[in-house]
């Protein structure tokens, strides 16, 4: 009875809404330290509570075998090479791992034969580098007297024998394990309390090729690959700025997938960079394989249909976004870069817009905007007009529509849902079928299916036209994820139109607009600079100004250097005016 009374009070009694703090991008160092300390105390309290209960909770939910907090890691590299060799074999389940290579050999130094071994994975390293720059010098050229301690011997080997550029001396066994897992090699020598982590990657990877999803007629024809360093080099080759910073991160507790955060140090907002670092450092999952998974772990709202980060495979577009003051995240194993923060207008722009004259790009943008409206609202408008608002159609057209639907047994909402699902099915099948058969299947399948549906009186002929125009409009959206969000919302507007006509569509647009205006991408309003409206200095919103008038970077990014070019960038034209 008391619970029922409390429930009714919560439902019917008015309460002042609780004030929630707005999102603040800035975060002081003291607040971070306090948050870390609170988290540590909570974990300690949880462990102590569980231990008092006899570990029942942890033993019930933890799998049998090694516990979560137990570790077999050897913290430091031992001077005894046998311990190091035993640990490496145990860690990598040797000899069960068929592609693991452990090469044992001798190093002659200080009148002694020192045991040594190198560990690597077959197929992931460049064998020529390992043989020529590591094994050959150590096995054939190491008979040199070295005076001093073991540290001097390690320095001598590093400075005089190993002729490879990317070698790191480390005392942590975990550093060697990570290097070997990522295509490197670990070198251990007896009586030396450190190991040599050698970056000798040599796996087969795809070379730089043309873009597949962001095709342009005019502009660079290069695309990212699955190699992280190739991708960062492509961006650096385009920008050529000494202030371009590439910060390295590793995401995934077990996969430790390398990724890079790229920005220009004297342009990007420092608070934005710090926020990106905070999110990357606080991802707690075992494995991450693609930038699509990373995007879902970094975005502000996981339920917003529209993407809150721009995914691009073009180095030139990535460089352009970084030059504006944005950030880019590149991930090993993914040919797509993540750009943040972004706005709704950025998702409607094509990489080609910057390479053509502004009248052409403005025409393209108007066409895309119309395509978005048609893709989102045209089926819903058809349902609303045919069911509720007959007076809006001219009499001759109304008679033609009704006569074509006379033999159709389904209501308009049912037939349009049937055709929309059929079109989505054909589109999905065309994507999944390999080779050139896919697009051919999509075109022929749509024609045959549409003609057969009309002949069988399942749908009306005008509905085929509406579904075709809707599908073409969705193809005109440059960003695939953005176009997919319109495909989902299209069904919502169809249902709203079937329920209440134009009233439902208006209500849907109103709610959709509120959601978009209240959304953010890394602290930046998603609908900026339109809602909330910023200064009139933004010259690249829905339409684009001439390139010589684009003097400032977007003000909603709060960059350190707002101006990107002087007021008079075409000095030759100004001089000609003065001569006249």
From TrEMBL:
Biological process (GO), any one: spore germination
InterPro entries cross-referenced by the UniProt entry: Spore_Ger, UPF0353/GerABKA_families
Pfam families in the record: GerA
GO cellular component, one term: membrane
Keyword Transmembrane helix recorded: yes
Residue spans crossing the bilayer: 366-388, 438-456, 462-484, 491-517
Record field: compositional bias (Basic and acidic residues): 35-53, 568-580
Region span, Disordered: 35-73, 557-580
UniProt entry keywords in alphabetical sequence: Membrane, Transmembrane, Transmembrane helix
Superkingdom of the source species: Bacteria
Family, as annotated: Belongs to the GerABKA family.
PANTHER family (alphabetical): LEUCINE ZIPPER PROTEIN 4 (PTHR22550:SF5), SPORE GERMINATION PROTEIN (PTHR22550)
Name assigned to this protein: Spore germination protein B1
Organism: Acetivibrio saccincola
Gene this protein is translated from: gerBA3
């Amino acid at each position: 009875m008391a619970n029922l009374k409390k429930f009714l009070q919560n439902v019917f009694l008015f309460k002042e809404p609780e004030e929630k703090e707005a999102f603040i991008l800035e975060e002081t160092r003291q607040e971070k330290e306090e948050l870390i300390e609170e988290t540590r105390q909570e974990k300690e309290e949880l462990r102590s509570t569980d231990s008092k209960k006899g570990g029942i909770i942890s033993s019930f939910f933890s799998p049998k075998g090694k516990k979560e907090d137990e570790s077999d890691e050897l913290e430091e590299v031992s001077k005894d090479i046998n311990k190091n060799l035993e640990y490496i074999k145990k860690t990598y389940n040797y000899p069960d791992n068929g592609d693991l290579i452990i090469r044992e050999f001798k190093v002659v130094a200080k009148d002694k034969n020192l045991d040594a071994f190198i560990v690597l994975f077959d197929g992931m390293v460049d064998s020529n580098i390992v043989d020529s720059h590591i094994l050959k010098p150590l096995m054939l050229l190491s008979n040199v007297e070295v005076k001093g301690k073991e540290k001097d011997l390690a320095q001598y080997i590093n400075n005089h024998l190993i002729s490879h550029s990317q070698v790191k001396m480390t005392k942590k066994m975990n550093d060697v394990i990570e290097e070997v897992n990522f295509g490197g090699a670990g070198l251990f020598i007896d009586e030396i309390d450190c190991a040599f982590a050698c970056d000798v990657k040599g796996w087969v990877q795809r070379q730089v090729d043309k873009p597949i999803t962001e095709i342009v007629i005019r502009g660079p024809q290069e695309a990212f690959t699955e190699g992280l360093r190739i991708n960062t080099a492509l961006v650096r080759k385009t920008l050529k700025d000494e202030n371009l910073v590439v910060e390295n991160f590793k995401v995934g507790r077990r996969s430790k997938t390398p990724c890079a955060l790229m920005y220009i140090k004297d342009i990007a907002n420092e608070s934005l960079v710090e926020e990106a670092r905070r999110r990357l450092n606080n991802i707690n999952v075992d494995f991450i394989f693609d930038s699509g998974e990373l995007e879902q772990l970094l975005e502000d709202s996981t339920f917003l249909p529209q993407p809150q980060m721009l995914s691009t495979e073009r180095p030139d577009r990535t460089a352009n976004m970084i030059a504006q003051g944005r950030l880019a995240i590149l991930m090993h194993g993914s040919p797509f870069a993540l750009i943040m923060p972004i706005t709704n207008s950025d998702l409607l722009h094509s990489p080609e817009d910057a390479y053509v004259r502004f009248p052409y790009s403005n025409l393209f943008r108007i066409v895309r905007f119309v395509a978005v409206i048609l893709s989102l609202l045209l089926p819903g408008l058809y349902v609303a007009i045919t069911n509720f608002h007959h007076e809006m159609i001219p009499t001759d057209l109304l008679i033609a529509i009704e006569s074509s639907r006379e033999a159709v047994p389904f209501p308009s909402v049912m037939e349009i849902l049937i055709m929309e699902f059929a079109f989505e099915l054909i589109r999905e099948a065309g994507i999944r079928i390999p080779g050139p058969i896919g697009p051919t299947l999509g075109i022929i399948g749509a024609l045959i299916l549409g003609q057969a549906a009309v002949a069988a009186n399942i749908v009306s002929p005008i509905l085929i036209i509406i579904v075709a125009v809707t599908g073409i409009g969705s193809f005109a959206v440059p960003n695939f994820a953005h176009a997919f969000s319109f495909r989902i919302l299209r069904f919502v507007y169809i249902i709203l139109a079937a329920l209440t006509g134009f009233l439902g569509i208006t209500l849907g647009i109103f709610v959709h607009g509120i959601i978009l205006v209240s959304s953010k991408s890394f602290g930046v309003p998603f609908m900026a600079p339109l809602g909330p409206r910023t200064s009139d200095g933004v010259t690249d919103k829905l339409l684009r100004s001439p390139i010589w008038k684009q003097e400032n970077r977007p003000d909603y990014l709060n960059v350190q250097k707002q101006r990107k070019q002087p007021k008079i960038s075409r000095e030759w034209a100004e001089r000609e005016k003065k001569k006249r």
